[in-house]
Specification:
It holds the Pfam family PP_kinase_C_1. It is an enzyme of class 2 (transferase). GO terms for molecular function: ATP binding; metal ion binding; polyphosphate kinase activity. Keywords: ATP-binding, Kinase, Magnesium, Metal-binding, Nucleotide-binding, Phosphoprotein, Transferase. The chain has 4 domains: 131 residues, Polyphosphate kinase N-terminal domain (Methane Monooxygenase Hydroxylase, Chain G, domain 1), CATH 1.20.58.310; 194 residues, Polyphosphate kinase middle domain (polyphosphate kinase like, 2-Layer Sandwich); 184 residues, Endonuclease, Chain A, CATH 3.30.870.10; 180 residues, Endonuclease, Chain A (2-Layer Sandwich). It is 35% helix and 21% strand. It has 20 helices and 27 strands. A hairpin with an 8-residue loop joins strand 5 and strand 6. Helix 2 packs antiparallel against helix 3, helix 2 packs parallel to helix 4 and helix 12 runs parallel beside helix 13. The radius of gyration is 27 Å and the shape is globular.
Length: 723
């Protein structure tokens, strides 16, 4: 599992504050005013859960290293977008969402205090626990002081040949203004003195991001893996960069910039040109965080604060090394014994050929039954990818239509679409070029697809297309058959190995007709109508969910069976939360399985005592969205792409599909039973907003790991067996 693969695309940090503001919601005044937990502090609590895994000595050592990197990278995005957006709203006098804190300045203060505490804790676990454990495992992250003369002589050669030519020191004086400091770059602040004149000068040196963050030291014949941080190595060769000058001080610093921008969408302007202009503007956003090493002198700090225009609250003093996101390089070391046991995803039993030696036929398998896929336990390559690749080469396939929100750098999905277009099929790709931090990659994909003859749509004005849909139209026995895939995660083979997601493959004609109409709306000018087996945002999804929550409320009031179970990444939407509170007041048992942000206060007497909230953070990123309603004994279950956030419900094209196969409904119910069980390791949320980890039994043994259990269950399936 790689840190960049674990970062969420749907609400950890990469959504603008504007996306979490619903100006249409009106408080009816019947519920307590303080019923929503703070959205930003809830996100920080999620990142604290990530940190707790890094602190847990029972987690394999290199996985702890990875969780340290994930924590750091998550926090960077949080500042670039969420904190930046809150600060922008304060400065411009814009309204702040209900669940972001009633007093904006107080919210920033609370965030700063919490982040300072978490970053100190993050640095301490690396220094006091993970680094010593790495030493014991023969993986040493050295400092210059640890090296002997022989080491230093060999590292001098590495510096001269591989590093020195890439470095560019920048002086700061009347002839050289303070240089632009790029966001997330690691820098050295250097004060030097001219021995002839006695005059002191300041210089800035950027640590090149094109070089390895941790430089491997030559083998010293002890069988150890040894590394030194690049900035430490460079710091101890400053005399070569400033010959003849005295080096007085040098420290590390790092700046995070505001990357919260909104695309001004004008129907008269090319969306790509508008987006490219805004991406250029993003590079020059104002600084919002300054990280410095704890040995920085006051004089240098004053210079940085003045030139960068930041406040004391935005300065974070930490022990070296800064930017522990760079530990991803250490995690990639090939030491299987220090990582989670390797899991090879199994091919879905429903997709296995009927005869042992027969070639798999995805269409024949789907035609037999709806197939519920569960990644990464079940292989993405032998299911979704195989579905599209078979469609591309099948002469009976006439058309393929697909949405692409994010995909990997070397994408077999895109290659399949290009191959289908080359074969003369009608291919439509809706590429969402506004997917934050993947805008340039998606623009490049879109242009490649266009060159291959694919019909490319760049999303819709004012809306992001976030739904995960693929539709294949096939000629069979003189009629057209629809084969559909609706998922909870992106068409990305890379993240499919670390994101937990669900997907439905179906030949159901009604689903096919629903998707046909939806794709026509996305690519043309059709007006959205209601669908038969889908709930689609922005017009119908929130209404559909609220209707079902109210049905459960009424069932409870009438003495009929009732129950709501929801699994999402985040839940902050006030209308949904208020409906859940009222359902709880009516006696509906409600289970919320929330991976990240949760603004619900569970267990409040008279308000939410029937609501339980659990969170599971582990080897895989829990990413699927599931909605289950008892419905008086006729259970309804939906899966899809939408979280319970304003942006998902109001400003995105999102799709949920209803599951109808009895074995699939049972599988979802069993998954919820396992997640909510007191015998399963998880974090529990209380009414005050505190998350408490429950991972040990009374006798000190570890509670059940949900992901390990599902891995075992799904790997044991055989063709024709029950799910």
């Amino acid at each position: 599992m790689e840190a960049e693969g674990y970062l969420d695309d749907t609400g950890l940090a990469t959504d603008s504050l504007d996306d979490d503001y619903d100006s249409t919601w009106v408080d009816d005044g019947t519920l307590p005013r303080d019923r929503f937990l703070d959205r930003e502090l809830s996100w920080l609590a999620f990142n604290q859960r990530v940190l707790e895994l890094a602190e847990d000595e029972s987690v394999p050592l290199l996985e702890r290293v990875n969780f340290l990197a994930i924590f750091a990278n998550n926090l960077d995005e949080f500042f670039m977008v969420r904190v930046a957006g809150l600060k922008r709203r304060i400065m411009t006098g814009l309204a702040v969402p209900t669940n972001v804190g009633t007093e904006p300045l107080d919210a920033l203060e609370a965030i700063s205090a919490q982040v300072h505490e978490l970053q100190d804790r993050h640095a301490a676990v690396f220094r006091d626990s993970v680094k010593p454990a790495l030493d014991n495992a023969g993986i040493h992250i050295e400092t210059w002081a640890d090296l002997d003369d022989e080491d230093r002589e060999r590292i001098d050669e590495i510096f001269s040949n591989q590093i020195f030519p890439v470095l560019t020191p920048l002086a700061v004086d009347p002839a050289h203004p303070f240089p632009y400091i790029s966001g997330l770059s690691l820098n050295l602040s250097i004060r030097v003195r001219n021995p002839k004149t006695g005059k002191e000068e300041f210089a800035r040196l950027k640590v090149p991001p094109v070089l390895p963050r941790f430089v491997q030291l030559p083998d010293d014949e002890r069988g150890l893996l040894r590394f030194i941080p690049l900035e430490d190595l460079v710091s101890n060769h400053l005399d070569e960069l400033f010959p003849g000058m005295e080096i007085l001080e040098h420290q590390e610093f790092r700046v995070t910039r505001n990357e919260d921008f909104e695309i001004e969408e004008d129907e008269s302007e090319n969306l790509i040109q508008s987006l490219e202009r805004e991406l250029l503007r993003r590079r020059f956003g104002p600084p919002i965080r300054l990280e410095i090493t704890d040995d920085m002198d006051d004089r240098t700090l004053e210079l940085l604060v003045r030139e960068l225009g930041i406040t004391e609250q935005e300065v974070y003093r930490l022990p070296a090394p800064l930017d522990l996101g760079g530990l991803l390089e250490v995690f990639r070391i090939e030491r299987p014994s220090l990582k989670y046991r390797k899991h090879v995803p199994t091919t879905s039993a429903a997709l296995l050929p009927s005869e042992p030696q027969a070639e798999p036929d995805v269409f024949a398998s789907i035609a037999r039954q709806d197939i519920l896929l569960h990644h990464p336990y079940e292989s993405f390559a032998t299911s979704v990818q195989a579905f599209l690749e078979q469609a591309a080469r099948d002469p009976n396939v006439l058309a393929i239509k697909q949405t692409l929100y994010r995909t990997s750098g070397d994408s077999p999905i895109v290659e399949a679409l290009i191959a289908a277009a080359d074969a003369g099929k009608a291919v439509l790709a809706l590429v969402e070029v506004k997917a934050r931090f993947d805008e340039l990659a998606n623009i490049n994909w879109a242009r490649q697809l266009e060159k291959a003859g694919v019909h490319v749509v760049y999303g819709m004005v004012g809306l992001k297309t976030h739904c995960k849909l693929a539709l294949v139209v096939r000629q069979e026995s003189g009629r057209l058959t629809h084969y559909s895939h609706i998922g909870t995660g992106n068409y990305d083979p890379k993240t499919s190995r670390v994101y937990e997601d669900l997907g439905l493959l179906t030949a159901d004609d009604q689903v096919g007709k629903d998707l046909t109409r939806l794709f026509n709306e996305l690519s043309g000018y059709a007006i959205e109508k209601k669908f038969k087996r889908l709930l689609v945002a922005p017009l119908h999804l929130r209404k559909g969910l609220l209707k079902r929550i109210r049905t459960e409320t009424q069932n409870a009031m009438d003495g009929n069976p009732s129950g709501i179970r929801i699994k999402v990444n985040s839940i902050v939407d006030e209308a949904i939360i208020d409906a859940l509170y009222k359902a709880s007041q009516a006696g509906v048992p409600i289970d919320l399985w929330v991976r990240g942000i949760c603004s619900v206060r569970p267990g409040v007497p008279g308000l939410s005592e029937n609501i339980r909230v659990r969170s599971i953070v582990g080897r895989y990123l829990e990413h699927s969205r599931v909605f289950s309603f008892s419905n008086g004994g006729d259970t309804q279950v939906f899966i899809g792409s939408a979280d319970m956030m304003h942006r998902n419900l109001d400003r995105r094209i999102e799709t949920l599909v209803k599951l109808i196969a009895p074995d699939q409904l049972e599988e979802i119910e069993a998954m919820f039973d396992l997640a909510m069980s007191d015998r399963t390791a998880s974090w529990w949320l209380d009414a005050s907003g505190e998350w408490t980890r429950h991972h040990l039994a009374d006798n000190g043994s570890h509670l059940v790991d949900l992901q390990n259990v599902l891995m075992g269950r799904i790997s044991a399936r055989k063709r024709g067996g029950t799910r």
